[in-house]
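Show me a record, fold above all:
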Amino acid sequence: MTARGRMLENKAADLGVAPEFTVSPEMLDAISPSGDRGGMVLGCGAQGEPLSVSVLRNAPTRIALVGGLYLARQVAMRAMATGAWVVVATGRPAAWHALTRAAGQGPDGRPVPLVQIRRLTPVELPRGSEDGPLLVVHDGTAVPQELFPPRSPWQTTLYVLPYLHPQAASTVTGADLALIQRLPVGQAQLAGRMWNLPPNLVQQLTALGDDRVVAVGPNLWLPIRLITTPSEQQLLGPIRRGD
């Protein structure tokens, strides 16, 4: 492994290791998450090795996702599969109903309250804990307001950005992790300036397939091939870059 390869591997590990949370057998059947305990598996690397990041951890965490709704919902579902509470603040609530279906129903026939879908307005949030971590999904504009900043350990805010905007520089570069899907040439060049990327990596951002994403951060460039389980395909449809 090259020195840069070791650096990327170590940087990914620095994102933290998630503990094992407990969820119901029904949730496990609905989501079919990976059995890996090292975090949330997003996909695999060039050699087919599983690649995971700790989306839920013992620190206030920000993640910026520049891409499509499919990936955002997949990340949220996998967070639910690890036992997290998910609060989605969005202007398109119907697009997130798949999470409610994934959570299933309780004995009384009502939806299991693992997920809440709300408007894009400030609201008092439950406090995350090691036994019940909290993922807040901010699905708004490309320049999000700081409505739900992570305030405590075991709370993660995921900013869903439909495209890369110059005024969102502080959001994406200030995040603990950025997940970038295929970008048009102009946005890829903007990403290159934000992270000081060499031209060959900027070019890679314009040529990513629908099933590809790059984890980007300070000293981090980690290409990932997304893997969707049959259960996720039933809920979300085929993997795709757009919405």
Notes: Residues 69-81 form the longest helix (13 residues). Helices lie at 3-14, 25-31, 69-81, 97-103, 169-173, 185-195, 199-206, 230-236. Confidence is low (pLDDT under 50) at residues 1-38. Strands lie at 40-44, 50-53, 61-66, 85-90, 115-118, 134-139, 155-161, 177-180, 212-217, 220-226.
